[in-house]
Amino acid sequence: MNTIRFGRLGFILAAAGSAVGLGNVWKFPYMTGENGGGAFVLIYLLTITFIGLSLFLAETVMGRLSRGDTVTAFETLAKTHQNYWKYAGFIIITGVLILAFYTVVIGWILKYVVLSFQTLPSTVEVAGGLFGGMVTTDTYGQLGYFTLAFVLCFWIVSRGVKAGIEKVNLFMMPLLILILLTLLLYAMSLSGFGEAFSFLFKPDFSKLHSSSVLAAVGHAFFTLSLGMGSIMTYGASLPEKENLFRSSIMVAFIDTAIALVAGMVIFTFLFHFGAQPTQGPGLVFVSLPALLSSFGLLGNIIAIAFFTALAFAGITSAVSIIEPVVMYITNRFNLSRMKALLILGVMTYGMGVLALMSNIETLKASVTFFGKGFFDILDFMSSSIMLPLGGMLVALFVGFFMEKQTLQTLLLPYMSKRLFAIWYLSIRYVTPVGVLCVMLNKLFF
Ligand code: TRP
Fold first, then answer.
1. Does the beta carbon of 98 sit less than 6 angstroms from any atom of ligand 1?
2. How far away, in angstroms, is 231 Cα from ligand 1 center?
3. Domain total of the chain
4. Does residue 2 form part of some domain?
5. 0.85 cut: is pTM over it?
6. What is the CATH classification number for the domain harbouring 342?
7. pLDDT, tens digit, 9 for 90 and up, residues 400-421
8. 368 phi and psi, to 5 degrees?
């Protein structure tokens, strides 16, 4: 039984810290670029509204009612078949896969904090070369920064979520938002702004493939931290009287708004230079430094602040991926927090090194499977397959295997009967059927 409780605003901060991360600023823009823009964004927004939000509430409810780790939550809340349902709690394993490539990217960001002190690359081409060079040739440099990122994340979790992470969030999140809004204001004055706007918000369905639909749905799960127990685990520390419904809406709103602002900023800069949106994972590392370079010293300062804040956004998310596994191990096996971190750390560090190697020209052959590098496999497996499946399990569980009465008692103080009915419908049918259709569509067509 978990006895730690978040303070006022604590849950919203922690959940927003988890949700807002590399997914918003690094992944969303480049995925949008690669998947053709507006139509992808539309599906992403629809998924967040009709599936993501209900699932977010479902995960908080499970955490809040069970007050335990994910395995315990599925086990104790099941009306029947508890012995089978507890295995659904192992959706936390997806976290190991995410963490491995996520910390590699935080490593890149740390390196860019350092690079921001030097002369910034003056064109998109130079910036692209710099980023590409780092990722495909600089094995030891990357390994160093990756290790630093890794140690930093695990060290913060070892100090406990409240003392370390809540405080960092409180300071860094507003800074990140401030920088993004400032950049947005500046972007509005550039000629690329209109083009960026139509790219993001004018859907062109001819560019949409079934793989893009799956990617958009998967990313909606990824960005809200759904489908692997992060939100459920934080839900276990909710105060007795928190308005779960309002908190869920707030987190989803903050998360979406930050992604859209980041997207607008990055694409405006890119179009300003007449560059292509299909730059892949290097997008944020390419368009931003190139534009900021024309600002001289001020550009350096903005770049330093931006990448530092982004690193922290990433770290607060990484922490929320580590915590569910740690909570499971400490609860169920009575091991210390340190031992739990060590077990998880060894697993993920090894996978992170393989992910990193799979981008290096001279090493990639040994870590490429079925034509895909290990880094991409981790990303694809977790976002496009395991998170949607995890979300579907949560939906089916809450919709069909928990007592409806229990859900009503908890939620009706915060939402009308009608809203509850809509949510219940979404959890029982819309979410599972929606996710299933998208996955089948991708598999067979
Ligand atoms: N949501 C975070 C982001 O957008 C990443 C993240 C944190 C996550 N916890 C998660 C993704 C749990 C999936 C599942 O960067």
1. yes
2. 10
3. 1
4. no
5. yes
6. 1.10.4160.10
7. 999 999 999 999 999 999 999 9
8. -115, 130
